[in-house]
What we know:
The chain has helices at 12-23, 29-42, 47-54, 58-71, 91-103, 114-121, 125-134, 153-165. By secondary structure, it is mainly α. It folds into 3 domains: 12-76, Arc Repressor Mutant, subunit A (Orthogonal Bundle); 91-134; 153-192, no CATH class.
Amino acid sequence: MSNAQRALALSPxxxxxxxxxLAAHGTPQQVALRCRIVLAASQxxxxxxxxxxxxxxxxxxxxxxxxxxxxxxxxxxxIAPGRGRKPVYGSERIKAVVDATLQTKPxxxxxxxxxxMAQRQGMSKSTISNIWRSHHLxxxxxKTFKLSRDAKFVAKLTxxxxxxxxRRSGRWCCAWMKRARFKRWTAPSPACR
Length: 193
């Protein structure tokens, strides 16, 4: 193989688009690197000199020259299938974590914590946290109505509902809540008790 490679043929529109992507602040760095490789390859020169100029391996230059020749500009934005880190846990295992989070509770606890679920499932707490984040699960946040633990709750609830249902009775109720920033506190009317 000769040291000098044949220059990539770029149309003026392709060259302009590559330069726009390079100048744009929103372009991902991996795409900008690929644009620099293609622009350098369009000026000729060996793969080794392009690799040294851009700061990558010679095989990277070969790959992106070939990909650009086959797929054009859009090939620079695509990630080839099979690249990247492979998932450690399969979809069945992830589904088991999600189902356990939504349908069960730990003994003596109101909700799951990352550490408890990790211990139960045999995974790390960061893996559980990532699974919950990707499925938008927040076990510490309750989405259902919680009943009061007050012993007189049922009687109080019945009185309040009766006020709303019997509006014609002429009874009304005012209540104030005590706040830390107020010095004086007004008690509710005896009729509301």
